[in-house]
Amino acid sequence: MDVKCQCGHIAFQTPTATPITVYHCHCTECRVQSASAFGTSAIFPSAGFLPLSEDLRSRLKVWTRPSKDGVVIDCYFCERCGCRIMGIDRYPDGRIDETVCFKGGVIKGLKYEGAWHMWTKSAVVKIPEGAVQWEEQPPDE
User: Fold this and answer.
1) Euclidean distance between CA atoms 103 and 30, whole angstroms
2) Domain that includes residue 63, residue range
3) Is residue 133 in some structural domain?
């Protein structure tokens, strides 16, 4: 799938043709980052994508933030337009996650059917009836 920021300075293919999962996060961090009611992300395997190529790394900036559970999230964005591209989790023991989390809006043709919802206890919009959802972080995330 094609990934592209607003200005086109960042453009590449996702590591696989389809994501492992797509989710809408209703936490306050994602709401602020997306300037919307929730943030949409698509999870892909990181194999073959990480470590980032030197060319891609040179065009990205990174903002790092801690999560509630001690994981550090490296949030990558375009150096020119500021568009958030992806997040990569780093664990306290130094491991890097086996997945990469791309922001949904930068992926051309991303399908939202079956997307699940997390951090719904912070939701400011109604969650669709029958949607897979968790009040906080889903298990194994």
Assistant:
1) 10
2) 2-24+35-116
3) no
Chain segment 47-59, per-residue pLDDT in tens? 999 999 999 999 9
How many domains does one find in the chain?
1
| Position 68, amino acid | K
Share of the chain above pLDDT 70, in %: 99
pTM to 2 decimal places: 0.89
> Does 131 map to a domain?
no
Q: Measured between alpha carbons, how far is residue 66 from residues 20, 30, 74, 75, 129 in Å?
A: 24, 13, 9, 11, 32
Residue 53 lies in a domain: yes
141 pLDDT band (50/70/90 cuts)? low
**Helix (H), strand (E) at residue 102:** strand 99-103
CATH number, domain containing residue 90: 2.170.150
Say how far apart CA 40 and CA 77 lie, in whole Å.
15
Quote the pLDDT of residue 59.
96
DSSP assignment of 29-65: HHHHHHTSS-EEEEEEE-BTTBSPPHHHHHHEEEEEE
Residue 64 lies in a domain: yes
